[in-house]
Write a structure and sequence with these properties.
With 256 residues, the chain is an alpha/beta fold. Helices cover 45% and strands 21% of the residues. Helix 10 (192-207) links the parallel strand 7 and strand 8 (211-215). It has one domain: TIM Barrel. The protein has an eight-stranded mixed barrel, surrounded by six helices. It binds guanosine-5'-monophosphate (G) (2 copies), manganese (II) ion and sodium ion. One guanosine-5'-monophosphate binds next to strand 6.
Length: 256
Amino acid sequence: MMVENELRSQRLQNQLVQYYQPVLNAQDFTVCGAEMLMRWQHPTQGLLPPAVFIDVVEELGFFAEIDSRNRQLACLQFARWRQSGLIAADGVLAVNASAQWLQHDHMLTEIERDLSQIDLPGRCLLLEVTESALVSDFDKTSARLRHLKQFGLKVALDDFGIGYSSMTYLKHLPASILKIDRSFVQNVPENEADCRLLKAMIVMAKSLALEVIVEGIETLPQATLCRALGADKLQGFLFAKPLSPEDFEHFLSSHQ
Ligand code: G
Ligand code: G
Ligand code: MN
Ligand code: NA
């Protein structure tokens, strides 16, 4: 209830901050980008994760506004890191897209406007969509994603494997990247059946010419197995948790 009142009060927008989790090349563990993950910098309760407030944001219908603002601020930040050389010219910024934002009337024009005003090429921006963000109006949403691809943007199917109809979405979505959900790496390499399942998922993705990002990498054996199986990129606590911009800069400067 408290969360809801605070969300309604509009103060929330200014208290949302952007955290960044590094994404690494599986081959050499160099940083190739980041996923922006929002946090609520609460005046009395400290840093709150999305799990605490995301449902209320959705109920109140604020998600389009919030995703749009976070995306814009993250693009500005990422463009600065790119210009300073902290991030490579082909580094990719990933943002999560809610259903409300994907269906918002101004989504396309806002992204198009920012790409022309912010010094960041479309190919450096990746939209992560989940099945749940797609269920409400799949045709409209996938048409939108196709349009965004014309600006050069990348599209990833996020949390792949945990939904009810992942394969159907894969078939119809204009995605070029698959993010394998962390539940599929949790028990590797110890669990042999899980290893085979992970291998099969990566083989399938590769045969569809999709880039594979495995998330939730917490141990070095997990990372080396994913690399051996042909994953392109890795993300997880082994390398870094989602970091404040300051900590992300420290991570980049101290990483190899
Ligand atoms: O960072 P964390 O593990 O707490 O994120 C929890 C969930 O919240 C993840 O599923 C992530 O996709 C989602 N999330 C985090 N930041 C954003 C955001 O800015 N927009 C949307 N739509 N989802 C987000
Ligand atoms: O749903 P999505 O994949 O966007 O959510 C990413 C979430 O996963 C973030 O909340 C982030 O904090 C969390 N996360 C990132 N790396 C790891 C990891 O190695 N282990 C676990 N358990 N969670 C992770
Ligand atoms: Mn994600
Ligand atoms: Na995910």
